[in-house]
Amino acid sequence: MDKFMQVAIDEARSGLNDGGIPIGSVLVRNGSIIGQGHNLRVQQGDPMAHAEISCLRNAGRIGHYRGSILYSTLMPCYLCAGAVVQFGIKKVIVGESRTFPGAKEFMESHGVEVVDLDLDECVAMMDDFINKNPELWNEDIGE
Amino acid sequence: MDKFMQVAIDEARSGLNDGGIPIGSVLVRNGSIIGQGHNLRVQQGDPMAHAEISCLRNAGRIGHYRGSILYSTLMPCYLCAGAVVQFGIKKVIVGESRTFPGAKEFMESHGVEVVDLDLDECVAMMDDFINKNPELWNEDIGE
């Protein structure tokens, strides 16, 4: 397992344990984690607090994103993909996209390299959550 | 002046008075304001706290965005446009796009109606800010 993806999965499981949506994210630059977070929609009542947004928020004002890699347990939606494109993050590594296709093509069309690890562990985590909480999941993706 | 755009401008000026970036946003549904906010990058050290994100965060978990209109004093960037597309906001009204072209075409390509009021007041507010704070502005848009 990619060690940074493992941290993202740990973030997702931490969110799940708090009653939240199990999606985690990590921002890496120069081989070090400079931000990490998980979805906080439920915990903070904040529909913008997707995992990637929480992660980038926690990284703080780092000035620029050149050379950084964003990890997420799930393919980013348009909100989070928009952040990737706007702030010039050029590489995104995701745990899976089977449970949610996200905005892969949008990122790629803006020159972002998107790597999908297609991990059974990430699929199982989301499948289980969506089956148990379909309304919460649909709310999170605006459906 | 559109009364909702006036509230967005007031939000922008409030942020400016606190040392922040002068961009404001308002979310309207059924003719009433259900959320408003301004850019808080400086005030909260949060690079994700663009005006539209702050506004949508403040609106809270409203369940769906059908019939809602997002106002912003400035054309949304990809981050904020991504939120618009992801959450199904179908109409965006902006104060101007002369100082920043934003992601108008991206939103339109996803069926969003984008109305640009091209207000001299909004242009002057941003022009003055960018001239005085070019580094802060470039940081806000990831450049």
TrEMBL record, chains A, B:
Q: Which residues form the CMP/dCMP-type deaminase domain?
A: 1-113
* Example of a GO biological process term: nucleobase-containing small molecule metabolic process
Q: Per its UniProt record, what SUPFAM superfamilies does this chain match?
A: Cytidine deaminase-like
Q: Where does it live in the cell? A: Cytoplasm
What keywords are annotated for this sequence in UniProt?
Cytoplasm, Hydrolase, Metal-binding, Zinc
Name one molecular function that GO assigns to this entry.
Answer: diaminohydroxyphosphoribosylaminopyrimidine deaminase activity
Per its Swiss-Prot or TrEMBL entry, what cofactor is needed? Zn(2+)
| One cellular component (GO) term of this entry | cytoplasm
InterPro entries reported for this sequence: CMP_dCMP_dom (IPR002125), Cytidine_deaminase-like (IPR016193)
- Pathway, per record: Pyrimidine metabolism
**Which CDD domains has this protein been placed in?**
nucleoside_deaminase
Q: What binding partners and quaternary form does the record give? A: Homodimer.
Query: What protein am I looking at?
Result: Cytosine deaminase
